[in-house]
Amino acid sequence: MERYTPIFVDISGKSCYVVGGGRVAERKIKGLLHAEAQIKVISPEVTPTLQQLHHDSRIQWLARSYRNGDLRGAFLVYAATDHSEVNTAVVQEAEDAGILVNDAISSEQSNFITPSVVRRGRLSIAISTAGAGPVAAAEIRATLEQQFGDEYETYIEFLYQMRMEVKARISSPGVRGKLLRRLTEMNVLEDIRTGQFEWWTEEQIGDWISHNQEDV
Ligand SMILES: C[C@@]1(CC(=O)O)c2cc3[nH]c(cc4nc(cc5[nH]c(cc(n2)[C@H]1CCC(=O)O)[C@@](C)(CC(=O)O)[C@@H]5CCC(=O)O)C(CC(=O)O)=C4CCC(=O)O)c(CCC(=O)O)c3CC(=O)O
Ligand SMILES: NC(=O)C1=CN([C@@H]2O[C@H](COP(=O)(O)OP(=O)(O)OC[C@H]3O[C@@H](n4cnc5c(N)ncnc54)[C@H](O)[C@@H]3O)[C@@H](O)[C@H]2O)C=CC1
């Protein structure tokens, strides 16, 4: 059954709470940190890495067990303790308050799940098996990481900069679309792989746009 729809949610600056501070919580928190969320951990104990992140003021830490009412103000919550009854109480409070919640012990209780992710700058490739096999998801990630190497970070950044320029300079959506498609047909990726790529100057971008818009 296809219960899940993949979406990319902007959580930068949003309050994300994690109940529990073990290995699983740490992994979920690393994903949240990547997106620059405001993170609060509620857990009597946390891993050394989480202690360090707290010390560096990158996460908040409430050093005690979860209590009903703790989730006030949260946008999203991970229930990541090793006690299913605690996670269930967290899920209950979150659902009553309309907060997105993930139960690390029981995917059935969660209303969102965490995919395995390949990250290359602005490019994210998310993989889910709908909870059937997280390790299989991780294996597929490793395969995709080979296929989509670090060169994609530069490539996607180049496309982004070009897209911004094209959007700023060309008002016709038809011409814009054709120019942007033409960009992906160029050998930029190959140039990056072989070390021949150089960032274009504003002038070069302008010249490329003027030259190409004539015959699209
Ligand atoms: C449903 C989901 C909900 C969620 O957590 O969001 C979920 C649930 C559960 N995972 C369990 C176990 C393990 N999960 C991992 C690893 C990962 N788990 C992740 C995601 C998800 N796990 C979501 C579905 C993803 C999908 O759709 O495929 C990854 C991809 C992302 C991440 O965590 O960031 C990350 C790999 C990251 C990477 O390397 O890329 C490992 C391996 C390890 O820990 O090293 C094990 C041990 C081996 C095993 O048991 O298979 C258990 C049983 C717990 C128990 O036994 O009590 C449950 C509970 C259940 O099945 O209901
Ligand atoms: N969804 C996933 O990706 C995975 C989920 N799991 C499940 O997640 C559970 C947690 O795994 P780990 O992080 O490895 O366990 P762990 O034992 O390392 O961490 C548990 C954490 O929960 C905290 N905790 C316990 N009671 C609490 C309470 N009442 N309030 C707040 N915090 C509390 C503990 O202080 C500890 O920091 C496992 O029991 C397993 O069932 C396991 C592997 C992957």
TrEMBL record:
Its EC number is 1.3.1.76. Keywords: NAD, Oxidoreductase, Porphyrin biosynthesis. Pathway: Porphyrin-containing compound metabolism; siroheme biosynthesis; sirohydrochlorin from precorrin-2: step 1/1. Residues 120-147 form the Siroheme synthase central domain. The keyword NAD applies. GO terms for molecular function: ferrochelatase activity; precorrin-2 dehydrogenase activity. Pfam families: NAD_binding_7, Sirohm_synth_M. InterPro entries: Met8-like, NAD(P)-bd_dom_sf, SirC_C, Sirohaem_synthase_central, Sirohaem_synthase_N. It catalyses: precorrin-2 + NAD(+) = sirohydrochlorin + NADH + 2 H(+). GO terms for biological process: siroheme biosynthetic process. This is precorrin-2 dehydrogenase.
